[in-house]
């Protein structure tokens, strides 16, 4: 039972040693701060505090950054060990493949959580200091951090899946870049195209919101936006959120990490080092 | 069944249409050291991976003690040193070995083990700074974790300097002395010759020999080589002994083990005409060539 913790401990050492943790945290802090200051203009016109606006901007940021950072650690998790030739040795020890994957996942998620909390926390604190904050906007910040960690978890698991399927770490990196592009950019573009073609027909009315929420990145966005009126106003995205039941986005974002992990484990079981 | 540390019984494995392991039989008693020889691609590494349960077999059975490959018990009782082992370069030797100790569940004296393989100075240095030989030693240190029933060493001497090789075989002897059965896949024939109890030779997925060196020599009927140096005229000597001249002053003749004494007596009877005699029994290299390249029958 403690075996996966041994793996976790080792993976944390590696993330600290190779500066991944430092770089990821720095990226989060810098982007979050930049967006907070750049996006602080509409505060007066919307009549909400600066933290609310900051959370709305950071939600958009996190849709891009959380999957990217997660995939950046995850792609190497299995393929890298295969390339180094150390996986066969690791698997000759009495630790199940599920345990190994869980150990890595725990360490990687902890590192992501640290980077998210420090990054968004710092920007949130700055926004609150300069532009004020209320209980509602503080809740929105906490929700942003927690959902970002969930979104990271989704893409860690999907990254392991690709890492187990790919032949070599280089191929895994390429596949990960493709996955990111599809989920974060192309999926929305495709939906946008479909909505435009449909001209407000049945697809737009009933199918579109469900297809949208099936994508974890969009579910993340919807959850954050639907939950806070101020954030929804600041981001100008209320329509899709209102068309769905409240549980849809949280359910999507919570099912995906589990689903991804199960798939990754199944793919890892088939890897012959 | 239970008195064997490792038993491999009629094991077959197919990869696509080719049969990579063909009815392999091999068993190791506790404390036995067996060399596994064969060309690249003969199936040595595949066999080792099958024993570890890392790759499925399609016929026959493998037992480590009483456990099946890949089971938790089997993995606890097996130690493995992969060919050209490598580790994450960001970790130190101590951290890497501590991880393995925790995974194996064995109480381990990590600094002591690293000292045993001569890495005590590099304990807290990153593996990225290690030489190939040092990584190999670190790999060897993890073989010593716990008290494995079976140790599988895939090309353990690759990248080691001569002194380290001596150390390696000393460690293998220690393992054997504590009752571990050691299977060594190797290309370094001359080392293996002196340091193992039995030789197994694989060719194209089949086990073509599995016996002690002496028995294998007798079985193969390889000739003993006698080199006789003449003091005066080598041509006369060659004619008399029915041998062939190999350089200005020497004659070579081949004889079977049974005829060896007879030949020596003849040479001794020639008196002053013979300046020196050198006798070379068949080496493992000759045997290996005999078994590993013998035409398929």
Automatic annotation (TrEMBL), chain A:
Example GO CC term: the record gives: plasma membrane
Q: Does the keyword Transmembrane apply?
A: yes
One protein family per Pfam = ABC2_membrane_2
Q: Does the keyword Membrane apply?
A: yes
According to UniProt, the name of this protein is: ABC-type transport system involved in multi-copper enzyme maturation, permease component
Looking at the UniProt entry, the stretches that span the membrane are 20-41, 61-80, 101-130, 142-165, 177-197, 247-268
Q: Which molecular function terms from Gene Ontology are attached?
A: ABC-type transporter activity
What keywords sit in the KW lines?
Membrane, Transmembrane, Transmembrane helix
Automatic annotation (TrEMBL), chain B:
Which SMART domains is this protein grouped with?
AAA
Q: Which GO terms describe its molecular function?
A: ATP binding; ATP hydrolysis activity
Q: Where is the ABC transporter domain?
A: 6-229
Q: Which domain of life is it from?
A: Bacteria
Q: Which residues form a coiled coil?
A: none
What's in the keyword line of the UniProt record?
A: ATP-binding, Hydrolase, Nucleotide-binding, Transport
SUPFAM superfamilies with a match to the protein in the record: P-loop containing nucleoside triphosphate hydrolases (SSF52540)
UniProt cross-references to CDD domains, sorted A to Z: ABC_DR_subfamily_A
Q: InterPro entries given for it?
A: AAA+_ATPase (IPR003593), ABC_transporter-like_ATP-bd (IPR003439), ABC_transporter-like_CS (IPR017871), ABC_Transporter_VariousFunc (IPR051782), P-loop_NTPase (IPR027417)
PROSITE patterns referenced in this protein's UniProt entry, alphabetically: ABC_TRANSPORTER_1, ABC_TRANSPORTER_2
Q: What EC number(s) does its UniProt record assign? A: 3.6.3.-
Q: Write down what this protein is called.
A: Putative ABC transporter ATP-binding protein YxlF
């Amino acid at each position: 039972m403690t075996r996966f913790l041994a793996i976790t401990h080792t993976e944390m050492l590696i993330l600290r040693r190779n500066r991944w943790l430092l770089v990821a945290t720095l990226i989060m802090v810098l982007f979050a701060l930049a967006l907070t200051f750049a996006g602080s203009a509409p505060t007066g016109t919307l009549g909400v505090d600066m933290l609310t606006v900051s959370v709305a901007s950071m939600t958009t940021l996190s849709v891009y950054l959380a999957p990217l950072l997660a995939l950046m650690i995850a792609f190497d998790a299995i393929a890298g060990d295969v390339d180094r030739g150390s996986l066969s040795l690791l698997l000759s020890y009495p630790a199940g493949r599920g345990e190994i994957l869980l150990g890595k996942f725990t360490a990687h998620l902890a590192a992501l959580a640290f980077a998210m909390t420090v990054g968004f926390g710092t920007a949130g604190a700055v926004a609150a200091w300069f532009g004020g904050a209320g209980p509602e906007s503080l809740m929105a910040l906490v929700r942003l951090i927690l959902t970002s960690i969930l979104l990271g978890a989704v893409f860690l698991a999907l990254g392991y899946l690709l890492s187990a399927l790919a032949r070599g770490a280089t191929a895994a990196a390429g596949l990960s870049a493709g996955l990111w592009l599809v989920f974060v950019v192309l999926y929305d573009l495709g939906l946008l195209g479909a909505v435009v073609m449909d001209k407000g027909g049945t697809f737009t009315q009933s199918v579109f919101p469900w297809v949208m929420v099936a994508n974890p990145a969009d579910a993340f966005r919807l959850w954050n936006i639907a939950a806070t009126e101020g954030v929804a106003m600041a981001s100008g995205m209320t329509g899709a959120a209102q068309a769905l039941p409240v549980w849809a986005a949280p359910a999507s974002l919570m099912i995906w990490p589990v689903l991804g992990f199960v798939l990754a484990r199944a793919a890892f079981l088939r890897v012959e080092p | 069944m239970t008195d064997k540390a490792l038993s491999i019984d009629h094991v077959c494995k197919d990869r696509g249409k080719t049969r990579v392991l063909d009815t392999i039989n091999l068993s190791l008693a506790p404390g036995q050291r067996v060399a596994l020889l064969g060309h690249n691609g003969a199936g040595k590494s595949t066999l080792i991976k099958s024993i570890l349960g890392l790759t499925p077999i399609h016929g026959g059975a493998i037992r480590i003690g009483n456990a099946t490959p890949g089971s938790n018990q089997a993995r606890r009782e097996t130690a493995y040193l992969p060919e050209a082992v490598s580790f994450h370069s960001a970790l130190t030797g101590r951290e890497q070995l501590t991880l393995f100790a925790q995974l194996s569940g064995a109480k381990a004296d990590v600094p002591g083990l690293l000292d045993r393989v001569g890495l005590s100075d590099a304990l807290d240095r990153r593996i990225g700074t290690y030489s190939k030989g040092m990584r190999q030693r670190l790999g060897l240190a993890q073989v010593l974790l716990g008290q494995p029933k079976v140790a599988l060493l895939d090309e353990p001497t690759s990248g080691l300097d001569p002194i380290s090789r001596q150390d390696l075989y000393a460690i293998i002897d220690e393992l054997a002395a504590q009752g571990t059965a050691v299977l060594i896949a190797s290309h370094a024939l001359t080392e293996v010759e002196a340091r193992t109890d039995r030789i197994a030779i694989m060719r194209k997925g089949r086990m073509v020999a599995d016996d002690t060196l002496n028995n294998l020599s007798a079985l193969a009927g390889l000739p003993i080589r006698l080199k006789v140096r003449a003091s005066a005229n080598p041509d006369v000597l060659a004619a008399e002994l029915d041998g062939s001249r190999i350089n200005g002053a020497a004659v070579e003749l081949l004889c079977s083990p049974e005829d060896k004494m007879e030949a020596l007596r003849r040479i001794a009877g020639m008196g002053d005409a013979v300046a020196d005699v050198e006798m070379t029994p068949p080496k493992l290299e000759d045997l290996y060539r005999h078994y590993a390249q013998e035409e398929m029958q």
